[in-house]
């Protein structure tokens, strides 16, 4: 009995020892588990912070790049718009300039063309000397000169109107301004005027111009320019009366020009009456 019971205390001791080892093993496991959890938690926290930092950095980088990209695009867009605007402005300016030159060109040429074709508008009266000092041959030359002037103008109510007054001893209105609308008829009427002879009463011819020439009755158009061309040799029988009529015509806004006809022209007397007819189609 005693011999069989000896192992019981030994078994008890072994059991206690195993218990102790198990307790130590559990403690070690718990400690290792806690350390592992702490390490994992720490690593997880660091990982999260790194991830956050990387995310923020990435966002900041992307934001910075986006801002830079937008800024670049905005700048490029602004420059592009500015360039396009500048180019457009230059293009418009060039077109405007070209258009202006184009407009200026035809206008100038148009004016020259009109002047060349005699397309001028005014009311014009020729005052013709048919005195003895002019003679029949000189009077034919006078009519040729008038017809040449007629051919340089477009005749009619909407264009240039031409009248004719003749003088010697007396003066009369041969062709009122409104009488002829057709150039051919006007030339025919001028050709039909016959030389009369007599003294050179220039003042009487100018007097008929002032009193009858530019009246509504005889076809004068309101606000139209009044022009007179005196065709004579300049040898007036009454210079004082002539100069008085010249002054009266000027006071009424009538332009008076002179044209010397004959082989014996008094140039000084003509200059005292009015300027020589300019070598142009329009006055």
Keywords for this structure?
283 residues, alpha/beta, six-stranded mixed sheet, 6 helices, 6 strands, 59% helix
Question: Could you please describe the fold and organization of this structure?
Answer:
The chain has 6 helices and 6 strands, in the order H-E-H-E-E-H-H-E-H-E-H-E. It has helices spanning 7-116, 135-151, 183-191, 202-213, 239-251, 267-273; strands at residues 123-129, 161-167, 171-175, 226-232, 255-260, 275-276. Strands 3-2-1-4-5-6 form a 6-stranded mixed beta sheet, with helices on both faces. Strand 1, helix 2 (135-151) and strand 2 form a beta-alpha-beta unit. The longest helix is centred in the N-terminal third of the chain and has 110 residues, at 7-116. It is rod-shaped. It starts with 6 loop residues before the first helix and ends in a 7-residue tail after the last strand.
Strand order of the largest sheet: 3-2-1-4-5-6
What share of the residues does DSSP label as strand, in percent?
A: 5-15%
- How many strands appear in the DSSP assignment? 6
Could you spell the SSE succession in H and E letters? HEHEEHHEHEHE
């Amino acid at each position: 009995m005693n011999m069989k019971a000896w192992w019981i205390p030994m078994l008890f001791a072994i059991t206690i020892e195993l218990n102790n080892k198990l307790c130590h093993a559990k403690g070690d496991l718990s400690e290792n588990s806690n350390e592992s959890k702490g390490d994992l938690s720490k690593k997880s926290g660091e990982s999260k912070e790194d991830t956050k930092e990387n995310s923020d950095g990435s966002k900041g980088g992307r934001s910075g790049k986006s801002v830079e990209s937008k800024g670049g695009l905005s700048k490029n867009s602004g420059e592009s718009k500015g360039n396009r605007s500048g180019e457009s402005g230059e293009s418009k300016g060039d077109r405007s300039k070209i258009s202006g030159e184009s407009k200026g060109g035809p206008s100038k040429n148009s004016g020259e063309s009109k002047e060349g074709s005699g397309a001028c508008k005014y009311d014009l009266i020729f005052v013709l000397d048919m005195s003895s000092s002019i003679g029949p041959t000189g009077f034919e030359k006078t009519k040729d000169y008038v017809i040449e002037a007629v051919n340089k103008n477009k005749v009619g109510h909407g264009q240039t109107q031409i009248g004719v007054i003749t003088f010697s001893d007396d003066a009369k209105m041969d062709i009122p301004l409104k009488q002829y609308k057709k150039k051919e008829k006007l030339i025919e009427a001028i050709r039909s005027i016959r030389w009369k002879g007599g003294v050179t009463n220039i003042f009487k011819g100018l007097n008929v111009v002032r009193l009858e020439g530019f009246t509504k009755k005889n076809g004068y158009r309101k606000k139209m320019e009044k022009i007179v061309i005196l065709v004579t040799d300049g040898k007036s029988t009454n210079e004082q009366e002539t100069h008085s009529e010249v002054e009266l015509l000027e006071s009424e806004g009538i332009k008076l020009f002179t044209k010397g006809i004959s082989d014996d022209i008094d140039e000084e007397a003509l200059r005292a009456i009015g300027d020589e007819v300019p070598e142009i189609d329009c006055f």
